[in-house]
Specification:
Layout: H1 2-42, H2 48-82
């Protein structure tokens, strides 16, 4: 019976060591995967200066768009004023 206990004890030690090795491999894999993801995401990072430059360009573009919208509205109003108005014939079939 003492031999059986020793066998189970040895098997338990082997299983414990294997579980520790698997846990270590899992941590290693997670660490490597995390680093790869950081590298992947980090490749697309931009500096604060680049961000500020693009933000300024967007603000300028928005201002230009608003100016163009106002000019278009003024031109439409001017066109509507200068277009000849259609007059209806009185007493016709349309009345």
């Amino acid at each position: 019976m003492q031999n059986d206990n020793k066998l189970f004890e040895d098997l338990s030690k082997v299983a414990t060591a294997a579980m520790g090795t698997l846990a270590g491999a899992s941590r290693e894999f997670s660490g490597v995967a995390r680093e790869r993801m950081k590298e992947f995401v980090g490749a697309g990072e931009i500096s604060r200066d680049e961000f500020d430059a693009v933000k300024a360009m967007a603000a300028t573009a928005r201002a230009e768009i608003e100016t163009l919208k106002a000019e278009i509205a003024a031109l439409k109003a001017q066109l509507a004023e200068s277009a000849p108005k259609k007059s209806r014939k009185s007493g016709g079939a349309d009345a």
